[in-house]
Structure formats: C-alpha cells, structure tokens
Amino acid sequence: MKEDVQRLMARAYNALADARLIYETGRYNSVPNRSYYAIFDAVNALLRLHDSYAKTHKGLKSQFNERYVRTDKMPHEANLWLEASFELRQSGDYDFEYDVTESDAAKSIEYATNFLLQAEAFLRSEIGIE
User: Fold this and answer.
1) Which of 12, 53, 65, 100 could form a disulfide with 42 if both were Cys (CB 3.0 to 4.6 A apart)?
2) Mean confidence (pLDDT) of the chain
3) Whose CA is closest to 111, among 49, 57, 39?
4) pLDDT category, 104, cuts 50, 70, 90?
C-alpha cells in the first residue's frame, strides 16, 4: 500500500510540474488538465489508505468527500480546490468557445499545489511517506 501511495504522489507531482512547464509556454488551455490530474492522483493516493481507488471523476469526488472532508481529515478547502480544478479542466478540455486565461491557469496551479501540500502532510502523518 505504501508503495502505491508513493507512486501516486510521484505521479501527482509530475502532473503539477507538467502544468507549470505548460504555463511557462503560454499555452494556458492545457494547464488545468495537468493541474486537475495532479489532484486526481493525490486523491487516489489518499484512497489507497482504504484499499480503494477511483476510476471515475464522480467516484473520486464522492469517495474523497465521504472519507476525508466529512471526517475533517482534510480541510474543507481541499474539496473547493478539487471542484474548482475540475471545472477549469472541463472548460479547457471541452468548451471550445472558452480559452483558459493566464489567471485561470495560475489558479489551477495554485489549487493543485495547495491540495498536494495538504495531502502530503496528511500522508506523512499517517504512514510516514517521504
């Protein structure tokens, strides 16, 4: 389990690094995608503590809320970051009349960064990941 958690958190940080690199190129439409998937992988890392894994976005949000937000294991802001990041990704990926702004892209990186820091702190306290 600990190895799965570490692997998923490594994927999360790689996705966040990708978001930052894409942001630097000015191609903002792709930034929310990578930022959201950083959060997606971090949530799945958290779910591994319960021998669970979400394959759908709806399932991911539902399990995260049930196991972490409602139990106050993660701050309620984490749910806001997840939701906002998902909405920005949806707009960037599927709304062809909408162009993600530099500000939107920066916000998505901020949401993912905050989420990953919270998830990492929780995982460090629970299972001692590095």
Assistant:
1) 12
2) 93
3) 39
4) very high
Give the helix ranges, DSSP H, for the chain. 2-25, 31-48, 57-64, 76-94, 102-127
Q: Tell me the backbone φ, ψ of residue 50, rounded to 5 degrees.
A: -110, 20
CA–CA gap between residue 94 and residue 111 (Å, rounded): 20
CA distance 57 to 51: 18
- How many residues does the structure list for the chain? 130
**Whole-structure pTM value:** 0.93
Tokens of 88: 């920005």
Tell me, which fold does domain 2-127 have in CATH? Answer: Four Helix Bundle (Hemerythrin (Met), subunit A) (1.20.120)
CA angle 92, 97, 101 (to 5 degrees): 50
What pLDDT does 128 receive? 72
Task: Count other Cβ atoms within 10 Å, centred on residue 64.
Answer: 23
* 115: Cα within 13 Å, side-chain hemisphere: 35
- Which value, in Å, is the radius of gyration of the alpha carbons in the chain? 14
